[in-house]
């Protein structure tokens, strides 16, 4: 449990019968690589809320800032990454919300794994090749729950493997004796070891084949329903998010440019970039789409275009796009129903987020 750290005032959730309670609120987060004039502004003024029990997908091309956002929000940013501003408000199961960016190193150690865990890109290759799976799982449990007997540790490790569909006799295996899919499942079991409220998955299945990817993600969604954690799921493959997320946020050039319920985004994306991304991947389900891709390349973060950073590639760009940055906010009611935001002059907002 984290020591008390000065509560942060938070907005009440919308007063609907199914109140959506926030668990992690990213507010106006800015992350740079380096300092001064040479700094790369990798994440810009990001507002994003993960709700309890929800799978929130984060998509965007390579270099759009997805991993930087996740690592910045959890204080796992490697140098030369620096948080240039913002707050990340975490809502524990019990107690007052607090700002993760204000935690001391000791508080941060307690916070990691126990409250939030991450499955990194290529995590399955980060299992230690010289230790059995049992040792690697029990090490994680022991580090945060000292005093458990050896038998209790092994029983918990077996239970965790069971959660991800691996028989307990595999506890005695070394990583090289498991398939890629099984190794990735072991990493997910580790991430769930301390029953965190938030699991961040950064391209968790990219290295696996399409069938295995979907098997693992289906299992994760079932576990989420049983155990009640929330998932921030990062990928460049929007078709995966459409299948497995409740909501989807799209990043471009370090900013969120659209956020919507997954089905609404798939049916009716508002931002031309989201539309382009959706038309870049074949969907396994739903109606067929013609794959057209997105012309041009992602922007150079050191020399961002003025106005809307997507304008040099946007098929719908018009007069204000090259000079004025469109704010993120709910589109006009006449355009679409609520519960979504977009940053595009085609849908100018009257109530910018933040
Ligand atoms: P990918 O899907 O390829 O992981 P991403 O959307 O997660 O991409 P990030 O890895 O967050 O993007 O990178 C965002 C931007 O920050 C990129 O333009 C990248 O070049 C830049 N960046 C990342 N790490 C560093 C670093 N150590 N030093 C300088 N710039 C960096
Ligand atoms: Fe395209 Fe303009 Fe919308 Fe940007 S603001 S996505 S350039 S139409």
From TrEMBL:
Domain ABC transporter: 26-278
CDD domains tied to this protein: ABC_NikE_OppD_transporters
Keywords carried by this UniProt record: ATP-binding, Cell membrane, Membrane, Nucleotide-binding, Transport
SUPFAM superfamilies reported in the protein's UniProt record: P-loop containing nucleoside triphosphate hydrolases
GO molecular function, one term: ATP binding
Cell compartment(s), UniProt: Cell membrane
Any Pfam family: ABC_tran
Membrane disposition: Peripheral membrane protein
One GO process term, biological-process aspect: peptide transport
SMART domains: AAA
InterPro entries to which the protein is assigned, alphabetical: AAA+_ATPase, ABC_Ni/Peptide_Import, ABC_transporter-like_ATP-bd, ABC_transporter-like_CS, Oligopep_ABC_C, P-loop_NTPase
GO cellular component: plasma membrane
PANTHER family: DIPEPTIDE TRANSPORT ATP-BINDING PROTEIN DPPD (PTHR43297:SF2), OLIGOPEPTIDE TRANSPORT ATP-BINDING PROTEIN APPD (PTHR43297)
NCBIfam families xref list: oligo_HPY
Record-stated family: Belongs to the ABC transporter superfamily.
Protein name stated in the entry: Peptide/nickel transport system ATP-binding protein
